[in-house]
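Incident log, entry 3
Record: DUF3612 domain-containing protein (524 residues)
Problem: checksum mismatch between cached and fresh output.
Input:
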Amino acid sequence: MVQQSNHARNTRLIGSKLRTLRKTHGLTLEELSARCIQIDAARAPSVSYLSMIEGGKRVPSADLLALFSSVFQREPAWFLDATQAAEAPAPAQRAGGAPPVPFEPAFLFSRELLQAAIPELLAQTGTSGRQFAHLLIRSHQEISRNDYPDLERAAEEVGERRFPLTAEDLIALCKRHGLELRWFDRPPMLARDRDTELRSMLRSFYDAPNVVYVNESLKAHPARLKFDLASHIAHKVLHGGDGLRSAHATGGQIGDSPHGPSAGLSPDDVLHAWRDFECSFFAGALLCPKVPFRRFLAREEHRIEAGEKIDLTPAVMMRRMTKVSAYPYWHFFDAYPPGYLRAVYRGNGIPLPWGNMAQVTDPCPHWAVFRMLDRDRGPDRGSQISVLREGDHFLLYVCHSRLTADMAGNPHVLSVGVDMVPALRSRTADADRLVDSIAQACLANGGEARVPDEAAIAIRAAAKVLNIGWIPEALENPARIICPRSTNCPRHEPCAGAGHSRAREITELQREIVFGAGCGRGGG
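Fresh output:
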């Protein structure tokens, strides 16, 4: 009788721990089964058997416990130890880079004053309305963690969740939705984007109500062709093909296309920018429906190169994985030289190394995107572990970056990355100490160093649970200290880009006057 009682207790304990672990890491039963199949197809449990284990109706064998241990990087004995509870999910971190601030005095931020002040601000700073609109949209994306279920559903209804879709499939969908494709032949040209000229190519554009003009050159680039067609289908489905959206062209400092030099805000700026975003998001959801694409990423360990097998551009792969991944702490950059961010997403709150509208004067040269933009030769892709100081503690990021070229031949760097701290905290209470050990090793070695063994073991285990293959690859290279601005470089000897400054803060002078030695008091 006692033996039966212990058996029932162990059954419930294993099921409860397995369910908590699975939900902590954002996995469905189907995804956990798929992860098990990926490791050992012969021993992998079915979805129904997993459900029975979690419900306490079945006891997993020793082999199955070993399989769960491999997925979640736990010792098999942990599942049977009632004294070790499964951790709750790490507390959600704020998305977006800059923390929100209270606007005081509140009357200065009334709707009427903002409607007058914002256009004046844009005009004085030379910022276009389209640029300002994209900043608003980016903040909306980051705060909402890219969650747009209506757009997801609309795309899945059109594509019926088929994955992958070929270029021929997209052409057929265009015809089904009454779109006529007309092909044109135009080479790259010089286009004006604010106060600069850049090589650009007109890829495609929508002509209301139902004509899509497509550059012949896209026939040689099926991955790019698929995205353009998917975006135009989105415009037809979402907005009836009214034509109120931008053309698809390469280049530009922010958004999807070069735009004119005019500053200030016009009534159509925000509308067009939002339409462009909606169509781009729809296109990603059409080409990469959430459930099948998430399974694809699991099979391929989130490797960007896997997109080449099914004609998906690296940009679509990177952008879409930040949305469909069970892990929410991602960032994505699309950077053009000399230092413009054409696209940004910061679900993990990483600070920006530079701005959208102007290159900063003191960029940190150790960000992966900067190093690749400045590289004349060498690998065109790679992974990097970066330590960034925020206040009195350090943050830990791992990114994978690729140097590529757009259709006009302009080089740019695509970079996708994750914040590792939440993943480490979900496994160990020593996460902050491990990150600090990496930072101290870098600081003691001129700003970069191999990750200490204990921290490397923890990162590999976390990467195994996240199922991201390029994280362990980053451990093969030294970790680097990075900072948002070189003038705030935390290295003992600031890097070459930092320089030295004799500038002082007025508040520092105030403190010297109030608290400094020899400060006379009293009146005469």
